[in-house]
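Protocol step 6 of 9: fold each sequence in the batch and record its structure tokens directly after the sequence line. For illustration, a two-sequence batch is reproduced in full.

Sequence one:
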Amino acid sequence: MEKIYYVHGWASDIVSPAWIPWLKEECKKRGIEFVAFEMPNPTEPKINEWVEFLRSNVGKLNEETFFLGHSIGCQAILRYLEKLPENEKIGGCIFVAGWFNLLESAYEEEEDRKIAKPWIETPIDFEKIKKHTNNFLAIFSDDDYCVPIDDSDLFRDRLNAKIVIKHGEGHFEDTERIDEILEDSLELSDEVVAEIEKSRQRPKSEFVSQEEVEAEFLNPIKHRKNAYKK
């Protein structure tokens, strides 16, 4: 992992939530470039504006590039990836409190429903997204007042995402650190790289293709830790 692009949530900014300062410091220690975008019109986020902003501001992509989103920022990343040329590859995506649906308690006023409606109703082509990476980590809390916990199943089913469900973290606004952001994404990437390298060293009679290795080691059911939702 060489670079992380961070996309914040609805009505948020580049210095929040509370775990961002911790993450920036951890990235600095590990030599990872952390790029946080101040997204346009964050109090009234629009799909086209946010996707176009990412298209205009994200640099050259490679398999050491990761995207990190919080809340609606997760959807913005997915919709951006959906529009990329098929041959563009990235290292993976980490989603914190991402959603495809919202709980009633997420809406503070009627205007919020109008803002959220396109994000909920506009279809996403997940098959296109998975052409760019098959490394997805999605982190949820069991008491999030915005995100229904069942959305974790949607991330797993639609993206084959590795799912982590934490206890009592709400919408992760006041959480001070999320160790899984770096530990789990790096662990998964390193494991795949190691196995691919092994496959290159096998005799031809024992050769396993890169696709087979990735399918095996990115399987979210076989390799999910006990702490992860099944």
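Sequence two, same batch, same settings:
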Amino acid sequence: MKTYLNRHVLKIMAAVVLMTTSPVYCMNFHTFYIPEWKRTVIDGEGEIVSGDAASFSEISKQGSRDQFGNVTLVLNSPGGSVDAAMEMVKVMDAVGVTTIVPPGGYCASACASILFVSGSKRAVFGTGLLGFHTCYNRTQSGDEKNDLCNDAIASNAVAHGVCYGVVDVWTKSYSAGQVAWLGPETACQMGLCSVELVPESKSCASFVDGLVDGFLKKP
């Protein structure tokens, strides 16, 4: 897919994803400088937990503004607390954020359905992946789907320019133990990417023509 990023920059971002070899049990934020952009971006890696909103608020002051006036947040996270992610969105909205999943990175669960979609500009590049599944409550009898939580997540997506159904279909069609992994092509065809970053992106309404249903029917 054609993007405004060249291969050199993609390699830099992929290298950043591979830097952490030990498990990360909270979202670790750090900055890195991309010479070709003459810009400092922020890398967010690890599980989303309480307190991450304050950490991001502080480090966002070190990020450079892109051509959209946003700070760039590169995501590589398995997800985490829905409440903590929603708190972080409040900070992201105040700061103005472009969200990116780089080659070799992945953004799953609350990272994908809350943080990624809350970027005012969004893109997935190379071998990057978005992972969606249902919101659930963990009980003694097992994991139970939480439709109220799923609706809140989909409503947040709408507030950030993503069609309700694009997020809702994944959260309600995949259980807690299942993940719908979307690469750049599928994600961008569904309107999860911004056309300013990925020219081939479709509008959020394009999935209505059967793209999602077709994907769900695949073995």
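Proceed to step 7 once all outputs are recorded. Observation for sequence two: The first strand starts at residue 28 and ends at 34.
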